Amino acid sequence: AGYSAGVTITPMFVVIGNVLLMGKVLGFDRVGYAERELFSATLLYCFIFSLLTTSPFHAVLSRYMSDVIYEERFEDILPCFYTGLVMNVFVSALLGIPFCIWEYLNGHVNILYVFTGFLGYMSLVLVFYSMLYLSICKDYAKISLYFLFGMAEAFVLSLLFAWILQMRVPSAMLLALVIGFFTTACLELAAVRYYFRKNSGRYRAVFSYFKKCARLSDFGKVFGAFCIPFVVTAVLLMLYNYARFENPFEFGQSYQLTTVDQHAYRENKFKLNDCLNGLLFHFFGYETISGSFPFIHHDGCFIQFPILFIGLRSIGLRGHKEKGELMVKGLSGMIWLSVAVISFYHVMWAPIVYRRYALDFNFLLCFLVMFGVCGLYWQSGNDAKLSFWLALLGTYTFVICFLLFFVDYDYSIATHQPEILEKIRSLFQFP
């Protein structure tokens, strides 16, 4: 459990600490708002999309490796690794290139900056992909050490690019981070090659396993289960964008640049203590209960939704290989790292996590809850009792989500249509 917690927590703090240090030394607070937003958005998309494109391969390959390990055919691991690597890189590039073209043509972002972001995205794909295979070896300390070495290299290079080569601070930081991520990926790839030296050359067996798992009925279930949360989140977010900006694809960038007074954001400067306070409030903040409907406020997500604590069960999970332990252990570390980095970047400029921006990573917390529930059932001695308590937590979560619709905050229904709030509030007024 301690090693598993280490592989989850250490890379998280190494990446965040490195960005904090680079920002402090290079004067990131003096950079214009638009450049800071572009840098933050680029890094966020690199983490989010690399995680999304890697996860499906983990779901299939972890099952294949469970069979290989059970049958002690360790020479078949390298063919699985190489086949999955090529397929993952191909699919990731296929999805990433159109996005980069759109960013260059419609966003008018410098092509070198776009290309650097694409390289960072592909480097993180390699990092996340290799973490699954290193998890098999239970050599979690090396994963943390590789992240530490890569981020140390990134910090030194950021100083070189900004001070010696006179690059702009966001460009210097992004390029240095990309090189650091690529170094981490290379070290992980070398470690995998070191542990698994024998190669049976049975690549067709891997493709056959993909075909076996790709039966239409099974594929539809897996694809639907994987995509439905993203589709629901995207639809709700676009409805919100249309209600507020009259454009489903306007995510607030034009509004922030043309309407909002950026000096209102605490003089629009980066402050470490404000960022940490913003993170603590978002996850663990608490306000007293109101005497009128809807009774609640926007508290910290872990305080408002206790069911999220189940996601912590994914750290140090010890399940059964045939039930997907390898997939869960491989994905949980990547998801925790992504949640930490995404939430951290949201507080770098505000410095709070606005509720609409929390959609970027709250759905990842829900995935961790799903993993935690799997772990609880794997080791439960009384499934009926566990199901009862989970049903209670689920009902409580549903009620809280319903009440939050009527909290007057950040252009919610209560702000947009206050008459609806008054009608519902009248139903809860007792003589």
Supply database-style keywords:
431 residues; mainly alpha; globular
Q: Secondary structure elements and their pairing?
A:
Blueprint: H1 2-26, H2 33-70, H3 77-107, H4 111-136, H5 140-164, H6 169-195, H7 203-213, H8 216-245, H9 253-258, H10 272-284, H11 301-304, H12 325-346, H13 359-378, H14 383-404, H15 413-416, H16 418-427
Helix pairs in contact: 1-5, 1-12, 2-3, 2-4, 2-12, 3-4, 4-6, 4-12, 5-6, 12-13
Task: Write up what this structure looks like.
- The protein is mainly α.
- About 75% of the residues lie in helices and about 0% in strands.
- It has 16 helices and no strands.
- It has helices at about 1-25, 35-70, 75-105, 110-135, 140-165, 170-195, 205-215, 215-245, 255-260, 270-285, 300-305, 325-345, 360-380, 385-405, 415, 420-425.
- It is globular, with a radius of gyration of 23 Å.
- The chain starts with a helix and ends with a helix.
- The model is unreliable at about 320-325 (pLDDT under 50).
